[in-house]
Specification:
It is built from 2 helices and no strands. With about 100 residues, it is an all-alpha fold.
Amino acid sequence: MITILAFGMPAAPEWIFIGILALVLLGPKKLPELARGLGKALGELQKAKEDFQREITGVPPLPKIESPTGLQSMESPSAQESGVTLPASAPSEEIPEKKL
């Protein structure tokens, strides 16, 4: 465990002392500005953490792509074994070449 926390969290008298020390060192004008900046920074950190968690856990898995049932009749037996499917618009016979 961290050695600073070995004695436990500061109790009320310690927090009062820390507050008075900060007030004396920073002054009454700077202390609210510092607290406001610290609060904004903690808010941004919390927002970034929530966005990161939402991005990691909220991404749906990729959809499983299934071949249409009508294409299976056009496949050759060797294509069925290898998992290759022909598109529905593919002709089953060769197209003759045009001569110029």
